Queue: 2 jobs
Job 1
Amino acid sequence: MIIVLKPEISKQEFDHIIEKIKSWGLTPMVSKGVERSIIGVIGEEDILRSQPLEVFPGVEKVIPVLAPYKLVSREFKPENTVIDIKGICIGGKKIINMAGPCSIESYEQLKDIAESIKKSGAQILRGGAFKPRTSPYSFQGLGEDGLKILKGVADESGMAVITEIMDPRDLALIEKYSDIIQIGARNMQNFSLLKEVSQSKKPVLLKRGISATIKEFLMAAEYILAGGNFQVMLCERGIRTFEDETRFTLDVNAISVIKQKSHLPVIVDPSHGTGRWNLVPQAAAAAVAAGCDGLIVEVHNNPEDALSDGEQSLMPDKYAEMIKTIRSIAKAIGREA
Ligand code: PEP
Ligand code: MN
């Protein structure tokens, strides 16, 4: 249920509504808009149906939210959410570029990559220290040593950091080194992990599960908002289909569907979405044209010897070319990159 408040509501009237909602055992979530504020009421909706909310002073109208996700929905918050990370605004006019290797391998590797992608225009450095690998015998990541390298290199290059959390017990560790907490596709419905990051003050990038519907994806994000963390970005990274020419099928439709249904920023990962480096720039271009708010791209200075995902990693020069293309597409649709 969403309670739309009158622009001229007094503080007393506002406090009274909040108190009443709490007295019914429900949780009020307030979204302050430029013109008017709205209260999203979370909990058993049946209780609300029997309450004459419309007659409360200061209430303009009461709208039932039909979608199973409430806080994530555009009904709850009509304007786009913009997340500010050290002055980098995600969800605004500018399309944000996150890039870096799949895994952090060494200081020298990451430094070299970071310098080149920064020059091309990337603002956020990615790199995995805890890797979700299909095989237990594959490289699992450098752990905290990797995080130290990541933070060190990002600071030297003047970039922000994104890295993946795999275990709820690692939240404090990830928060110490990273500006954005990434939840990988394989953990999209790890509800303990979602609840843990909902308690964090750091923004979260939630990747779509390999076989998740858009509804399931938005419900997973709802867990994070319901716990109090509204700084969530949704990442389309390809889904599993019958098509096996590519590693996954990048669901370009999902970008506009999510933009219509939700106020949260949408990021696209064309690297995992295709699985082949020579398809990445085209997929990235399509994503920008479709209205995404940012890209997260795997870049490696020596893909042949990469410890993970070399086949889908762009060389730095190809990444630079890709950014040039992205910029002209962004301009054509009234945005920047
Ligand atoms: C990654 O970003 O390296 C990664 C493992 O992505 P995903 O969770 O989308 O597979
Ligand atoms: Mn990867």
Job 2
Amino acid sequence: MENIVALCKRRGFLFQSSEIYGGLNGFWDYGPLGVLLKRNVKDAWWNDMIMSHNELVISGGAPGTYEMTGLDCTIIMHPQIWKCSGHYDLFHDFMVDCRETKKRYRYDHILGRFVLAASPATRVFVTTLETENTQAALDEAALKFFGLRKKDLDKLQWEGEIMSLPDAMRSAGGAANVLGPDAKTPDTLTEPREFNLMFKTTIGALGTEEDTAFLRPETAQGIFANFKNVCDSTRLRVPFGIAQVGKSFRNEITPRNFTFRSREFEQMEIEFFCHPSQSAQWYAYWRDRRFAWYIEMGLAGERLQLREHGATELSHYSCGTADIEYQFPFLPPGEFGELEGIAHRGDFDLRSHMEGKLVKEGCELVLEKLPNGQPKHRGSGKDLTYYDDLTKERFTPHVIEPSAGADRATLAFLCEAYQVDTAPDEKGQPQERVYLKFHPRLAPIKAAVFPLVKKDGMPEIATEIYGELKKQFSVFYDDKSAVGRRYRRQDEIGTPFCITVDGQTVQDGTVTIRDRDTLKQERIKRDDLVKELSQRLG
Ligand code: GAP
């Protein structure tokens, strides 16, 4: 992974945000090549899912024909959207930091028990995080703290039951003498602080609490909020999908693993609306379609997997969810990281925005109410049901949501592309070669154009070719240093083809085209270059 990170910085794919000021944790900038790569990922997704979709024919594996369209919604939306969607409540966690170990914990995830030992005569609330045997973990922590050995277990006088840290603080009136998990001395945990995973901002100049708004933590809600607008302004008929690509923001507690968990990232989401009787088939269709897309784009082999969630893992509204996962090199062997989730969301989202925040009661979704019987978060009250004028049926569509991360996909394509082999250098000597084996559709630069040497009319022809190709493709011109070095520089950034103008070009109008992966060079007519490149790039 270090090699990939180093290459990303060296060749201008990714930089740490605000690096000259020491960086900002969880934020990343895409450099000159990174911006091209990520744009190609988003364009490939948009093109394959929306633009090239033919609504007149049944796509392979689909239960019927369907339509696709897109939206571009604002990042800041009405705060009630996040209250009804559940994000406002869900994304509010209380966290404590340990001043000694520098670790951060969810306040209510810390479990412990009061314990006394004769020497030193201290009463401490010893803590741990939940494990298979929490008491054993507490025994170990207490023995360590009191400087006792395993055989001295009976010298510990445990009091009461295992309880959460918030309960202990309540029962001890706030003075619990807490020994944090992994801490050596008590009293190192900070006061619990509200950790809002949604970034707050204020609308308008006064900045009162009523003016609080949030940066969206997902693009999906803008689509639900516009469902009626799309139905009313187009002739789309259910089933149809609405797609959106854009920035999302989450104040992640532990951003890490390069861009994998960032605080500002881009999502590529589809909300697919269908009749409830067909939603299980549509779910299976989208799950398989999205998995196939990553394979088509080059993520093949054992590093990619489709994992269907077990019943206990499903969200309260979901009748089926699958994750598309990739074995990123920064993960421990055998572990996979999520690239995309495909969720069957039933009618949860549209109902939430009609009625208000829903919770599960038994098998039913019901409006969450306050003790006084009022809705906890009131919905819009707008009718978001759909009327099918052919069947004369009114219903609330079910939603299938394929939700992908543009940054995670870009990172996976980068990791998968990174290759090292041995190839002869300009003197014919075998040398280690680092190259990025991108799918040609994703490669930031599609072709490089070189004059073999800077004389004998070659630069003039190469410049002309470059100008012609640039009208259609992302190309690069290079006339500096030995041609072998120029090839290596292009290999390292994943350019699939290098076109060289040499002495023969001047005589017969042919050029060489070199393939990044096979290193094979073919001679083709200069006039055929546009056609040839179009074919090879796919
Ligand atoms: N609307 C559903 C939703 O947002 P999610 O699983 O929270 O679901 C979807 O996010 C995708 O967004 C993930 O599969 C991942 O690719 C990307 N994503 C989520 N959080 C991210 C983060 N902190 N950094 C980078 N990508 C993230």
